[in-house]
Design a protein that fits this description.
about 625 residues, alpha/beta, eight-stranded parallel β-barrel, four-stranded antiparallel β-sheet, 22 strands, globular
Length: about 625
């Protein structure tokens, strides 16, 4: 048995799992020379959510990040995570887009492509694998590990055999939700080793606390490569600690040969870097055995936490975690990994926030139920399907077979904005985001989201600028425990604050007292005059009659489907809103005529606003 090789994921999955994918390229490059000297089998540094986060939050060109990392890591294999026919977006792309994306990823520095499909539908992997082999790079066919009544070891062995027949160079077991137990790991690795001749690569998150034990059992049964993360971004929702793996195998026949002293120098660097991103730390990134039930993957939990926090609903996380397995069962037990983790997770949030299951159904859930992501592993709940898509025809073929070539159309749509084929591909992944990004980049006005200074927040000099977020209030002899969980935007005349009062979620609207009248001049007795208004801080009216159309969650308007004067029926789609990276159609609340539209594409909206109004015909 040859030594066990190690892939480190600190440049991708480590910060995706613990700080919502917020690490900037400028914090990666200074340590690259030491990372390059370690002798890893590969460094996972691109793909997954990093592409999205670069464009959406960091305002960095993800292709430029890849080029810079390639230059800074001349002796290391750079590995990326590729979602098969989804690439790095949230829909299926035509085959010509897949081939172009793989080509440009290889041209800019990717050596190893870990290719998976969220449904484990191998039809969605074949073109990506062929494209990687065509450019002479390493194709790692991936099993998205999960548990359900239909997922067992023979199921995964069958997948591995087919991936080998596609020409893959290695087989990865991707345990994104930390579901593998040591016993099952040993059985699975042994079965795969007997069935295929390819090296087996284990990727197991540490969320459940089982991963380190599972790695040892995998090594004992013949795994060739294991994933770890440098200790300052390891454990919990991330992966097991690289230094610990190296120490555990040192002096055995599986000795990795890696230098723990060098690894600790790297860890010390990232320990300091992590402090810069304190505002993105989540309380849900430690060991959490609930994952064995809810199956929320490590890469999703910190982002889900952050998104709920932005909505002022972090206190409802437990309800969402309880709802996720119910939605997953309704959808036929898909593995929870991007994009199905977002599809299931966002629908679970909607079910909780609206107070009624499937009262509002995202476009992505509808597309899933129609077969646009591939074949569901098990039977879908017929009532949910009927509620969401009625009797619409479900496709049976490979979804991409229905897609025409897209690259030429995409080039035409961003002509004048795109400066390269890479820009066109960025637009393909996230059209609306990319247009704004490319416009600002070309104008030289890109600005990343701010990093707050923790020292400034806590210093006595500026403490007066900050209010407490958790406190007790005593009123008429009764004490209430108040915890602030979120708020609306600064600068609004009427600003919503989301709080829990003795554990019960509440919304409090605070209206600025911004008009002061002083009576009598010399009396010095001023009277605050509250400015009455039926509008929110954005200027939109509050819901006041049954024809007011609202949203269940804060988000961004991506489409307005009606105009003033249009006739609509109750249940017609009138708006599309993006919330938590998923699109959700908003339906007409009643039949009638659209008499007012208070929003436009690109507007940010909240649940307390009227977005458009319908009056009876």
């Amino acid at each position: 048995m040859a030594k066990v090789h190690v892939t480190d994921v600190v440049l991708r999955d480590g910060h995706q799992s613990l700080i919502a994918t917020r690490m900037r390229t400028e914090d990666m490059l200074p340590i690259c020379s030491k990372l390059d000297a370690v002798g890893y089998w590969s460094l996972e540094a691109w793909g997954g959510a990093t592409f999205d986060a670069c464009v959406r939050y960091l305002r960095e060109d993800p292709w430029e990040r890849l080029k810079k990392l390639r230059q800074a890591l001349p002796n290391s294999r750079i590995q990326m995570l590729l979602r098969g026919q989804n690439l790095l977006g949230y829909r299926h792309y035509s085959d010509d887009v897949v081939r172009a994306f793989v080509q440009k990823s290889a041209d800019n520095g990717v050596d190893v492509f870990r290719i998976f499909d969220a449904m484990n539908d191998l039809r969605n992997l074949k073109v990506s694998i062929e494209a990687v082999k065509a450019v002479g790079k390493h194709a790692e066919g991936t099993i998205s590990y999960t548990t359900s009544p239909v997922h067992d070891i023979p199921y995964f062995v069958s997948m591995a055999k087919e991936l080998e027949s596609y020409g893959c160079d290695t087989i990865a077991i991707k345990d994104m939700a930390s579901l593998l137990t040591p016993e099952v790991t040993g059985e699975l690795v042994k079965a795969l080793r007997s069935a295929v001749s390819l090296p087996i690569h284990l990727h197991a998150h540490a969320t459940s606390g089982l991963a380190s034990m599972s790695i040892q059992r995998a090594v004992d049964n013949g795994v060739s490569i294991v994933d770890g993360c440098i200790s300052s971004f390891a454990e919990g929702a991330s992966l097991p600690t690289t230094e610990s793996i190296v120490a555990a195998l040192k002096g055995t026949e599986y000795d990795t040969g890696l230098d723990i002293g060098l690894l600790q120098e790297i860890s010390a660097y990232f320990r300091e870097v992590r402090k810069k991103y304190w505002q993105f730390e989540s309380e849900f990134t430690g060991v959490d055995t609930r994952v064995l039930v809810n199956q929320v993957p490590g890469g999703m939990i910190s982002n889900l936490s952050n998104q709920l926090k932005e909505q002022g609903a972090l206190n409802r996380m437990d309800e969402v975690l309880d709802e996720i397995p119910r939605v997953r069962e309704d959808l036929g037990y898909p593995p929870l990994v991007t994009p199905t983790s977002q599809i299931v997770g966002t629908q679970a949030v909607l079910n909780v926030m609206t107070g009624a299951r499937y009262k509002s159904v995202t476009n992505e859930v509808k597309n899933y139920l129609l077969g646009h992501y591939g074949k569901a592993p098990s039977t879908v709940n017929a009532d949910v399907r009927n509620l969401a898509v009625g009797n619409a025809q479900v496709i049976e073929c490979r979804p991409a077979d229905l897609l025409s070539a897209e690259m030429e159309k995409l080039r035409n749509e961003v002509e004048g904005l795109a400066k390269s084929e890479e820009d066109v591909l960025t637009y393909a992944m996230f059209p609306d985001l990319a247009k704004t990004f490319l416009q600002e980049r070309n104008a030289g006005t890109l600005k990343p989201e701010p990093l707050l200074s923790k020292d400034a927040v806590t210093s006595s000099e500026s403490r007066s600028r900050y209010a407490p977020s958790e406190f007790n209030v005593t009123l008429h002899g009764e004490t209430f425990h108040i915890k602030l969980t979120g708020s609306g935007h600064h600068g609004e005349e009427q600003r919503p604050f989301y709080v829990s009062v003795d554990g019960v979620a509440e919304e409090v609207v605070v209206e600025t007292l911004n008009e002061i009248e002083v009576s009598g001049g010399s009396s010095g007795n001023g009277e605050a005059k509250k400015k009455a208004s039926s509008n929110t801080g954005s200027g939109r009216p509050r819901p006041s009659h049954p024809g007011c159309v609202t949203t269940a969650m804060p988000g961004t308007i991506v489409d307005v489907k009606v105009n003033i004067g249009d006739k609509v029926s109750a249940g017609d789609a009138v708006l599309v809103i993006e919330a938590m990276k998923m699109e959700n159609e908003i339906q007409a609340s009643k039949a009638g005529v659209v008499v007012a539209v208070h929003i436009k594409k690109g507007d940010t909206v909240t649940p307390d606003e009227t977005l458009l109004e319908i009056q009876p015909d």
